[in-house]
Amino acid sequence: MTVLHSAPRWTSNEGVKDALVAALGDMLVRADEEHGEILLTVVRERAEDAMRSLRDDHEYQQLMDIAGVDYPERAERFEVCYCLLSVTKNHRVIVKVATDEATPVPTVTTLWPNAGWYEREVYDMYGVLFAGNTDLRRILTDYGFQGHPFRKDFPLTGYVELRYSEEDKRVVYEPVQLAQDLRQFDFMSPWEGADYVLPGDEKAAAPAAAPAPKVDTPKTTEKPADTGAGAKANAEAAKPVADAPVASKTDEPAAPEPTDDRPAKADGEGA
Question: How far apart are CA 254 and CA 260, in angstroms?
Protein backbone atom coordinates (compact mmCIF):
# COMPACT_ATOMS: atom_id res chain seq x y z
CA MET A 1 0.00 0.00 0.00
CA THR A 2 1.42 3.38 -0.99
CA VAL A 3 1.59 5.94 1.81
CA LEU A 4 1.60 9.58 0.75
CA HIS A 5 3.43 12.19 2.78
CA SER A 6 3.24 15.94 2.48
CA ALA A 7 7.04 16.26 2.76
CA PRO A 8 9.04 15.35 -0.36
CA ARG A 9 11.55 12.52 -0.19
CA TRP A 10 14.32 14.82 -1.43
CA THR A 11 14.55 18.60 -1.47
CA SER A 12 16.86 20.73 -3.58
CA ASN A 13 18.86 23.66 -2.20
CA GLU A 14 18.01 25.70 -5.25
CA GLY A 15 16.87 29.17 -4.22
CA VAL A 16 16.89 28.39 -0.49
CA LYS A 17 20.07 30.28 0.37
CA ASP A 18 19.00 33.44 -1.46
CA ALA A 19 15.58 33.38 0.25
CA LEU A 20 17.11 32.97 3.72
CA VAL A 21 19.72 35.68 3.10
CA ALA A 22 16.99 38.12 2.14
CA ALA A 23 14.86 37.15 5.14
CA LEU A 24 17.58 37.37 7.80
CA GLY A 25 19.04 40.65 6.53
CA ASP A 26 21.42 42.33 9.02
CA MET A 27 21.19 39.35 11.38
CA LEU A 28 23.34 37.39 8.92
CA VAL A 29 27.14 37.53 8.80
CA ARG A 30 27.64 35.19 5.84
CA ALA A 31 25.96 32.35 4.01
CA ASP A 32 27.64 29.39 2.31
CA GLU A 33 26.66 26.19 0.58
CA GLU A 34 29.18 23.39 1.10
CA HIS A 35 28.92 19.63 0.67
CA GLY A 36 25.20 19.92 -0.07
CA GLU A 37 24.51 21.84 3.17
CA ILE A 38 23.45 25.46 3.64
CA LEU A 39 25.50 27.17 6.37
CA LEU A 40 24.29 30.43 7.91
CA THR A 41 26.59 32.39 10.23
CA VAL A 42 24.57 34.89 12.24
CA VAL A 43 25.41 37.73 14.61
CA ARG A 44 25.89 36.35 18.10
CA GLU A 45 23.60 38.86 19.82
CA ARG A 46 20.85 38.19 17.24
CA ALA A 47 21.07 34.41 17.27
CA GLU A 48 17.74 33.91 19.05
CA ASP A 49 15.91 36.28 16.71
CA ALA A 50 17.44 34.66 13.62
CA MET A 51 16.40 31.16 14.67
CA ARG A 52 12.93 32.33 15.67
CA SER A 53 12.52 33.62 12.12
CA LEU A 54 13.74 30.31 10.71
CA ARG A 55 11.31 28.40 12.92
CA ASP A 56 8.19 30.54 12.47
CA ASP A 57 8.59 32.01 8.98
CA HIS A 58 10.52 29.29 7.13
CA GLU A 59 9.19 26.11 8.78
CA TYR A 60 12.40 24.83 10.36
CA GLN A 61 10.45 23.43 13.28
CA GLN A 62 12.93 21.07 14.94
CA LEU A 63 16.27 21.64 16.64
CA MET A 64 18.10 18.37 16.00
CA ASP A 65 21.43 19.07 17.70
CA ILE A 66 23.86 21.71 18.95
CA ALA A 67 27.57 21.06 18.42
CA GLY A 68 30.72 22.96 19.35
CA VAL A 69 33.92 23.47 17.37
CA ASP A 70 37.23 24.85 18.64
CA TYR A 71 39.62 26.93 16.51
CA PRO A 72 42.35 28.05 18.96
CA GLU A 73 44.07 30.28 16.39
CA ARG A 74 41.00 32.55 16.09
CA ALA A 75 40.16 35.45 18.38
CA GLU A 76 36.65 34.02 18.73
CA ARG A 77 37.85 30.47 18.96
CA PHE A 78 34.50 28.67 19.39
CA GLU A 79 31.69 28.04 16.93
CA VAL A 80 28.29 26.88 18.15
CA CYS A 81 26.47 25.01 15.36
CA TYR A 82 22.68 24.58 15.44
CA CYS A 83 21.25 21.84 13.18
CA LEU A 84 17.68 22.68 12.17
CA LEU A 85 15.19 20.44 10.34
CA SER A 86 12.03 21.32 8.45
CA VAL A 87 9.68 18.33 8.68
CA THR A 88 7.27 19.87 6.16
CA LYS A 89 9.92 20.55 3.51
CA ASN A 90 12.32 17.76 4.48
CA HIS A 91 15.21 20.21 4.45
CA ARG A 92 18.05 21.02 6.82
CA VAL A 93 20.18 24.09 7.54
CA ILE A 94 23.07 24.71 9.90
CA VAL A 95 23.26 27.99 11.83
CA LYS A 96 26.63 29.05 13.25
CA VAL A 97 27.50 31.50 16.02
CA ALA A 98 31.07 32.53 16.92
CA THR A 99 32.19 33.41 20.44
CA ASP A 100 35.17 33.38 22.79
CA GLU A 101 35.83 31.95 26.23
CA ALA A 102 34.12 34.76 28.16
CA THR A 103 31.30 36.09 25.94
CA PRO A 104 28.01 34.19 26.36
CA VAL A 105 25.72 33.12 23.51
CA PRO A 106 21.96 33.78 23.83
CA THR A 107 20.10 30.64 24.82
CA VAL A 108 17.51 29.12 22.49
CA THR A 109 15.67 27.27 25.24
CA THR A 110 12.95 29.89 24.73
CA LEU A 111 12.41 28.42 21.26
CA TRP A 112 13.16 24.72 21.83
CA PRO A 113 13.09 23.34 25.39
CA ASN A 114 15.34 20.44 24.40
CA ALA A 115 18.14 22.94 23.77
CA GLY A 116 18.86 22.95 27.51
CA TRP A 117 20.54 19.55 27.34
CA TYR A 118 22.51 20.44 24.19
CA GLU A 119 23.72 23.76 25.65
CA ARG A 120 24.85 22.01 28.82
CA GLU A 121 26.85 19.56 26.73
CA VAL A 122 28.58 22.34 24.76
CA TYR A 123 29.30 24.17 28.01
CA ASP A 124 30.72 21.03 29.61
CA MET A 125 32.95 20.06 26.68
CA TYR A 126 34.04 23.51 25.45
CA GLY A 127 33.26 26.00 28.22
CA VAL A 128 30.90 28.12 26.09
CA LEU A 129 28.47 30.13 28.21
CA PHE A 130 24.78 30.52 27.31
CA ALA A 131 23.00 33.59 28.62
CA GLY A 132 19.48 32.82 29.81
CA ASN A 133 19.96 29.10 30.43
CA THR A 134 18.69 28.64 33.98
CA ASP A 135 20.33 25.21 34.45
CA LEU A 136 23.78 25.63 32.91
CA ARG A 137 25.87 22.94 34.64
CA ARG A 138 28.00 20.02 33.61
CA ILE A 139 26.23 17.02 32.13
CA LEU A 140 28.92 14.54 30.97
CA THR A 141 31.85 15.04 33.35
CA ASP A 142 31.90 14.54 37.10
CA TYR A 143 31.33 17.11 39.82
CA GLY A 144 34.45 19.17 40.44
CA PHE A 145 35.94 18.33 37.02
CA GLN A 146 38.61 20.81 35.95
CA GLY A 147 38.76 22.15 32.41
CA HIS A 148 36.80 21.33 29.27
CA PRO A 149 37.87 18.10 27.50
CA PHE A 150 37.04 19.04 23.88
CA ARG A 151 39.22 22.14 23.82
CA LYS A 152 42.27 21.66 21.62
CA ASP A 153 44.60 22.83 24.39
CA PHE A 154 43.21 20.37 26.94
CA PRO A 155 45.94 17.80 27.81
CA LEU A 156 45.27 14.21 26.87
CA THR A 157 46.05 13.10 30.40
CA GLY A 158 43.76 15.67 32.00
CA TYR A 159 44.56 17.64 35.13
CA VAL A 160 43.35 15.35 37.91
CA GLU A 161 42.85 11.64 38.43
CA LEU A 162 40.48 9.87 40.76
CA ARG A 163 40.77 6.72 42.79
CA TYR A 164 38.93 5.03 45.64
CA SER A 165 40.66 5.54 48.97
CA GLU A 166 40.39 2.63 51.39
CA GLU A 167 41.41 4.94 54.22
CA ASP A 168 38.79 7.63 53.54
CA LYS A 169 36.21 5.15 52.16
CA ARG A 170 35.40 7.49 49.29
CA VAL A 171 36.59 8.63 45.86
CA VAL A 172 39.41 11.15 46.07
CA TYR A 173 40.81 13.48 43.40
CA GLU A 174 44.55 13.99 43.02
CA PRO A 175 46.79 15.77 40.49
CA VAL A 176 47.84 13.58 37.61
CA GLN A 177 51.18 11.90 38.25
CA LEU A 178 52.50 9.97 35.27
CA ALA A 179 54.50 6.89 36.18
CA GLN A 180 56.48 6.89 32.92
CA ASP A 181 60.08 7.98 33.40
CA LEU A 182 60.71 8.32 29.68
CA ARG A 183 58.17 10.43 27.81
CA GLN A 184 60.09 11.09 24.59
CA PHE A 185 58.28 9.18 21.90
CA ASP A 186 59.33 8.81 18.27
CA PHE A 187 57.24 7.70 15.34
CA MET A 188 59.90 5.84 13.36
CA SER A 189 58.61 2.81 11.53
CA PRO A 190 59.45 -0.40 13.42
CA TRP A 191 60.14 -2.10 10.10
CA GLU A 192 62.95 0.33 9.35
CA GLY A 193 64.48 0.06 12.79
CA ALA A 194 65.74 2.85 15.00
CA ASP A 195 69.14 4.40 14.25
CA TYR A 196 69.97 4.43 17.95
CA VAL A 197 70.10 1.88 20.78
CA LEU A 198 66.91 1.85 22.78
CA PRO A 199 67.24 1.75 26.59
CA GLY A 200 67.62 -1.88 27.64
CA ASP A 201 68.57 -3.17 24.19
CA GLU A 202 72.25 -3.15 25.06
CA LYS A 203 71.57 -6.00 27.48
CA ALA A 204 69.98 -8.11 24.77
CA ALA A 205 73.01 -8.21 22.47
CA ALA A 206 73.47 -11.73 21.10
CA PRO A 207 76.77 -13.44 22.07
CA ALA A 208 79.28 -14.12 19.36
CA ALA A 209 78.85 -17.51 17.70
CA ALA A 210 81.45 -20.16 18.60
CA PRO A 211 83.79 -21.06 15.72
CA ALA A 212 83.11 -24.36 13.96
CA PRO A 213 85.56 -27.18 14.80
CA LYS A 214 88.20 -27.86 12.18
CA VAL A 215 88.28 -31.43 10.78
CA ASP A 216 91.37 -32.29 8.78
CA THR A 217 90.28 -35.74 7.51
CA PRO A 218 86.60 -36.78 7.55
CA LYS A 219 86.05 -40.11 9.29
CA THR A 220 84.37 -42.81 7.22
CA THR A 221 83.37 -46.48 7.81
CA GLU A 222 84.52 -48.20 4.67
CA LYS A 223 84.91 -51.67 6.28
CA PRO A 224 83.12 -53.47 9.15
CA ALA A 225 86.08 -53.07 11.44
CA ASP A 226 85.58 -49.26 11.37
CA THR A 227 82.07 -49.37 12.79
CA GLY A 228 83.13 -50.36 16.31
CA ALA A 229 80.08 -52.64 16.71
CA GLY A 230 82.06 -55.90 16.95
CA ALA A 231 82.30 -59.03 14.79
CA LYS A 232 79.02 -60.52 15.97
CA ALA A 233 77.00 -57.42 15.08
CA ASN A 234 78.79 -57.07 11.75
CA ALA A 235 77.98 -60.67 10.83
CA GLU A 236 74.32 -60.20 11.71
CA ALA A 237 74.12 -57.01 9.66
CA ALA A 238 75.68 -58.76 6.64
CA LYS A 239 72.78 -61.23 6.32
CA PRO A 240 70.41 -60.45 3.44
CA VAL A 241 67.03 -59.09 4.41
CA ALA A 242 64.15 -61.23 3.26
CA ASP A 243 61.31 -59.48 1.46
CA ALA A 244 58.21 -58.92 3.54
CA PRO A 245 55.31 -61.18 2.55
CA VAL A 246 52.62 -59.52 0.47
CA ALA A 247 49.11 -60.08 1.72
CA SER A 248 46.79 -61.60 -0.88
CA LYS A 249 43.06 -61.17 -1.21
CA THR A 250 42.57 -64.72 0.03
CA ASP A 251 44.10 -63.76 3.35
CA GLU A 252 41.52 -61.03 3.89
CA PRO A 253 38.63 -61.89 6.23
CA ALA A 254 35.37 -62.72 4.51
CA ALA A 255 32.52 -60.26 4.57
CA PRO A 256 29.82 -60.95 7.17
CA GLU A 257 26.67 -62.69 6.08
CA PRO A 258 23.76 -60.35 5.41
CA THR A 259 21.12 -60.23 8.13
CA ASP A 260 17.50 -61.07 7.55
CA ASP A 261 15.21 -58.27 6.51
CA ARG A 262 13.12 -56.80 9.27
CA PRO A 263 9.48 -57.79 8.81
CA ALA A 264 7.19 -54.95 7.88
CA LYS A 265 4.87 -53.66 10.59
CA ALA A 266 1.21 -53.33 10.24
CA ASP A 267 -0.42 -49.91 10.17
CA GLY A 268 -0.92 -48.44 13.60
CA GLU A 269 1.96 -50.28 15.28
CA GLY A 270 4.57 -48.22 17.11
CA ALA A 271 8.09 -47.70 15.87
Answer: 18
